[in-house]
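hey so u asked for the seq, here:
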Amino acid sequence: MSNTPFKFELLAQDGDARAGVFHTPHGDIPTPIFAPVGTQATVKSLTQQQLQELDAKLILANTYHLYLRPGDDLVAEMGGLHQFMDWNRPILTDSGGFQVFSLSDTRKVDEDGVTFKSHIDGSTHRFTPEHSVQVQENLGADIIMCFDECADPYDPVYNQQSMARTHRWAERCQKAHQRQDQALFGIVQGGVFPRLRAASAEFIASLDFPGNAIGGLSVGETKTEMHAMIEIVNAILPQDKPRYLMGVGTPQDLVNGVQRGIDIFDCVLPTRLARHSTAMTDSGRINLMNAQYARDERPISDTCTCYTCQHHSRAYLRHLIQAREMLSGTLISIHNIHTLLELARKLRQAVFDQNYNAYAAQYLSNFED
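ran it, structure tokens below
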């Protein structure tokens, strides 16, 4: 790893909660961190300038979607994702595995890879571990992911089989990986089964990736089960590598995840909620469609420093929603992403201040589902 531009520094620890920094070719990623999701090389409804003003340090793009449209070869021809979308900060791409495996009616899994049909036009495609890595190398993100299988978390027999296949695919991804300016992360699987999660964490850790991810959670299991799996895995994964909890990103998830040793989070939730007129706050969600906000002069949150809260009222936002103006999604997305980014910064500071558990308990006690 000394020959690569990637290095993780663990700067502080309070219990299992950690504060660090992951150095990449496109800048440092302070951890814990939340990464807004830019599925198709765009965080929905926001410009790259707005993301920079929010001080997003890391964004995620989706391998499956960009492979289908516009195509990874075209993105490579355009100079890679950073140049294509004009983003000069770190980018993470997933492997496409979750999206492929969500196509349950049109995919076929075998030892070599997965055959699936495009959700766009029904055309047939195939991903193998080697092809997934090749696509991600064409896209050019700083952090790329091994191709894995995300299985039903409650099926013990299939989880055993798919976990073993995920391990074999991880070895193949590692052999196929060529670009030293990209950090390839391994992915731990194993459903909600402690024995499988522990075995997967031990195997993935043995491959000595520059970072490790926990996949297959937030897919229908309970929060108690999720927390138990995180604790089992993080007790085994190396301390000197960043830990990424894939696809998880409610405020409560950030607080509970950091408390158990997670460093990186991503989720489509803040922009998806915004498109459905819902704002995230540190005490719960607000549905701005509700008539009670028609004459509400207050911002979404009195304590929020985002552009939306500094300039616009709940009444104005409700008007935009009622008028079906696109600006409503943009303004609420700005607020929601700011809320999660700011929370991650506060959690990081709480680790430095050595009062993480007290901060977490107070935050969660004020939160209403």
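The longest helix spans residues 327-352. The first strand starts at residue 7 and ends at 14.
lmk if thats what u needed
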